[in-house]
Amino acid sequence: RVAVVGAGVSGLAATKCCLDEGLEPTCFEQSQDIGGLWRYTEHIEAGRPSLYPSVISNTSKEMSAFSDFPFPEHFPVFLPNALLLDYLRRYAEHFSLREHIKFGTTVVSIRKHPDFATTGQWNVVTEAGGRQTSDVFDAVMVCSGNFSEPSLPLQCFPGIERFRGQYFHSRQYKHPDLFQGKHVLVVGMGNSGVDIAVEASRVAAKVTISTSRGAWLLSRVFEHGYPWDMILNTRFWSLIKTNLPGPLSWWLINYKVNQWFNHKNYGLQPDKSWLVREPVLNDDLPSYILTGRITIKPGVKEFKDNSVLFHNCPEEEPIDIVVFCTGYTVSFPFLEESVVRVENKHASLYKYVFPTHLQKPTLAVLGLIKPLGAIMPVAEMQARWVSHVFKGLCQLPSQSVMEKEVNEKKKNQVQWFGLTFDEVLKTEWLVYLDTLASFIGAKPSVLGLLCTDPWLALTIFFGPCSPYQYRLGGPGRWEGARQAILTQWERVLKPTRTRVPAGSSSSFPSLLIVVGFLLLLAAVILGF
């Protein structure tokens, strides 16, 4: 029996993967519906993520799909939140997940059973309708997300206590009406910050973004009009990034991100451009900077009564409203601190999933990761791996080995990503997926396919690393995986070629297909 906490993206994937392995999941959802982050409500609900109605997915539908359930072909390439929620509902219905979900049920506490050392069991206390119930479960999957508890470090902003204007965390934002005719300051330059700044600039008198680090900006519409992640998240690109000498690799990344526009000219280039930064996805910001709707400024030095001072800027800027886009805090109020240790917004977890110190590996945290790609395939792959571990099909390394890797990962992440609010949650998308897939025997073999299905081998090597690749073989093999991979571009073009018939297409030139075989052989020499 497995307790699943939360019925968002991770919780649905966890429930489905448990069923695939013959486990008995019970999913506890405190609200009355599935969807988690992607279910919009006009009012902010305690303990739940809050979404503004204009949110659109930053990753394309083909790269965001669960590995055995493609999006409908008529869905747009990037999904408005309502359509993404519709997809999750279709997923739940298709795999009959709702009958395993207890809605309106809050998880109050999860504690080790008295004989945990031998059984690995947990006492789970839940509350529904004002009544508490205690049950014993053999394992637990924590899928409660990390967008519910806002981080608002006001102590880092001198003078905020005397600021007479309005200020709030981005979690409270819903509509841009309150910015009408105002001078607006957005602190922070993540995806939410840029989205809110762009929306505010359409009605505000002036909008300023304050960023101490800068950011790389990507458009959803990438080379030749194709989705950014279907171009960048490929095995070919991953091979280049991991095998080129460091300076050459970073030069290539800088070149790629500056093809759209020169970040330095727009005041956006990260201070240490050689550090890997999580890119910000927005299609409008450069043009809004060009037209004067949005101004980029350095970090806040001090707030005054009705204005703000920025570092290295002598002039005060009049401000009416401040939106703090300063991220979220990781917390598990239903767990004892000794179970999942959270320090500086970082939970020490092996592969971002398993606590390293438990006597039995019967508790896992899903979705607590910020990959440079779609989260849904990652959460699903985590769930597939975890369900194998719970069932005894996969073994974890010793505690000392896991702790050593967690500590090394922490050091490396700080080195590569720099010190940020979420530095240790970011990881390379494709490498992480391949690592977990290899644990359960689901990683595709490009070289093996080259002998049996060369066209498919070329497609998965040079084309996008869509999630269907992880259903080609091994446990959980899906008969439709090959067809889903070979028709992925058709589903991309279907909702855009609305004036002319949609035909099959590919993102790479035909010349690349001709020389692809030789390049793949070169990859063999590199030990791919």
Automatic annotation (TrEMBL):
Keyword Transmembrane: yes
GO CC term (a single one): endoplasmic reticulum membrane
Bilayer topology annotation: Single-pass membrane protein
EC nos: 1.14.13.148, 1.14.13.8
Enzyme class: oxidoreductase
Chief subcellular location: endoplasmic reticulum
UniProt cross-references to Pfam families, sorted A to Z: FMO-like
Domain of life: Eukaryota
MF-aspect GO terms: flavin adenine dinucleotide binding; N,N-dimethylaniline monooxygenase activity; NADP binding; trimethylamine monooxygenase activity
Swiss-Prot/TrEMBL keywords: Endoplasmic reticulum, FAD, Flavoprotein, Membrane, Monooxygenase, NADP, Oxidoreductase, Transmembrane, Transmembrane helix
Cofactors: FAD
Gene3D superfamilies: FAD/NAD(P)-binding domain
Transmembrane segments: 508-527
UniProt subcellular location: Endoplasmic reticulum membrane
Reactions the enzyme catalyzes: N,N-dimethylaniline + NADPH + O2 + H(+) = N,N-dimethylaniline N-oxide + NADP(+) + H2O; hypotaurine + NADPH + O2 + H(+) = taurine + NADP(+) + H2O; hypotaurine + NADH + O2 + H(+) = taurine + NAD(+) + H2O; trimethylamine + NADPH + O2 = trimethylamine N-oxide + NADP(+) + H2O
Job description of the protein: Broad spectrum monooxygenase that catalyzes the oxygenation of a wide variety of nitrogen- and sulfur-containing compounds including xenobiotics. Catalyzes the S-oxygenation of hypotaurine to produce taurine, an organic osmolyte involved in cell volume regulation as well as a variety of cytoprotective and developmental processes.
Family label: Belongs to the FMO family.
Name of this protein: Flavin-containing monooxygenase 1
Species, as recorded: Panurus biarmicus (Bearded tit)
